[in-house]
Design goal:
Cyclin A, domain 1; 326 residues; DNA-binding; 4% strand
Amino acid sequence: MTDTSIRSDSRERTRERVRESQDEEEDLVCPECGGNLVSDEERAETVCDDCGLVVSEGEIDRGPEWRAFDAKEKDEKSRVGAPTTKMMHDEGLSTNIGWQDKDAYGQALSSRQRQKMQRLRTWNERFRTRDSKERNLKQALGEIDRMASALGLPNNVRETASVIYRRALDENLLPGRSIEGVATASLYAAARQAGTPRSLDEITNVSRVEKDEIARTYRYVVRELNLEIQPADPVSYVPRFASDLNLSDEAERRARSLLETAKEKGIHSGKSPVGLAAAAVYAAALLTNEKVTQNEVSEVANISEVTIRNRYHELLEAEDRIQPEG
DNA sequence: ATGGTTTTTACTGCGTC
DNA sequence: GACGCGGTAAAAACCAT
């Protein structure tokens, strides 16, 4: 390689001269009309100012920007390494540090050197895991996006979910847990935080992970990240149920107020928010004379009819006690 | 693991269309 | 008779301890 590289240096030099003069944009004249040549950097062209002749276009100098006069100098100045390969996730660009404490000639390293190499291995490993985190993140974010659109969740929820996932990743919560599990848990948490909760069942439907695992992972993530997530507000389910059942705005309004008074009376404690919301929607439909069966409500809310019955009695009772005139 | 609470399942009876 | 509704008991699920 020494011969060719030295020989090519002369070419290199002339090319560089040309480039220098072009860069400075001086003393260049159009071969056709003798007008000024202007370089259009945006299009990588050199054009004549007067006649519009394109002297050169798409020119990219692929040579090195430095000159070397012998092989040693070339080695020193060259900053490129081994060819890349698609067979490795990082195209073979990440650093590998051998585990033997030997130098390039097979000699054993001094203890001082050994310690140094050990430290380097440690750090190299840290950077490598950072890389792997990036890949995890990419997959997880794709998964979050998929599930979010399946559930019709807005963008801000997706972003919140991404943030949660990132934090989980940073806190090393991933080992021992599946990416998809944590991604799902993040989305579940984000949806609740954003006030547009989806029930665990709904989440499970679009996730590739079992319900149990989601619940477990969710609890874990919430605990480890100290996420503050209040029990879901029943009211936040109302709009969705109401629209799924084609109820009037009036009914929806009454459902809300029903839940409000229930809240004041402290009826809802330990009861499932979904059940409460479903019961409120059902009760509101009754009050506004809109036909909805318990069965229909139980369908859209994924709650049993029995629960609806129990809850909506309590709701109406609470309402009556505050406003005896119904 | 356990016990207490809530939800679900399954079944029944009643009234209406 | 099918359907909507209410109630009940037992099973299952959930949650904190």
